Each structure stands twice: as structure tokens, then as C-alpha cells.
What does this fold into?
Amino acid sequence: MSLTISRAIVDQILEQARAEYPDEACGVILGPAGADSPVRLKPMINAAHSPTFYEFDPKDLLALYREVDEKDEEIVVIYHSHTETEAYPSRTDIAYAGEPGAHYVLVSTREEIAPATEFRSYRIIDGNVTEEPVTILN
It folds into this structure.
């Protein structure tokens, strides 16, 4: 498996991650049901307001699932930022990964790599983490 994503969406995620620093930024990318095609970015609010943890507000999550159903879309990507560590899923990230069909994208905005960022994608299924290649289209 691999993730193919537009440069515009990647740039929006990185911009959000920098803007919400030092808290972790988070959100989803939606696409047509069954297409595995990330086309519509939907930034979410980190209800935890934390530099080491993110969570979607339950009301926002419910609204998201309703919206996805109404528009015949699916959650293709679930993304968040790590502010002080590499872009690799933490134990908490792995424990909360409940969408086996989703790509889990992590970006890192830690100071050692500024102004660059890491942008990596994973599949997390039953606690198993597999990094996958990312193709960024212009």
C-alpha cells in the first residue's frame, strides 16, 4: 500500500501544524467512498490542547461521521503532528488507531529539523504499524 496525495494538501497540513504549535494539530482528509483518494482536507480541533496528545472532540467526530455519510465519502487519512518527536506513531497513537482502512499521517515540527518537516504515512491495524511510501503530486 502507499499514499498518493497532492502538494496543496500536504502544504495545508504543514501550515496547520506550524500554526497550532506547540499543541499537536490534527484532522482528516476525506475522499469518495471506496476510492482511497484523499481530496478534501478537514482540519479538526485538538480537544486535548496538548503538545503530546491529540483527540477529536466527540461532538466534532459525530458531525464528521454524519457529513461523511451524507456525502458518500470516507475518511482516507487521519493526520496529526508531533511537536518534539519524530513522525512515528506513539504507543497512544497505536492504541487509539481505530480505522483499519485509513492512512495515518504524521508530521513532525520539532526544532531540530526546522524549517523542514517530516511527513510520513502508516497503516495501523490491530496494533501493527507499517510505514508506507508517500507520493506527493504537484
Observations:
- The radius of gyration is 14 Å.
- The chain has one domain: 3-137.
- The chain has a mean pLDDT of 94.
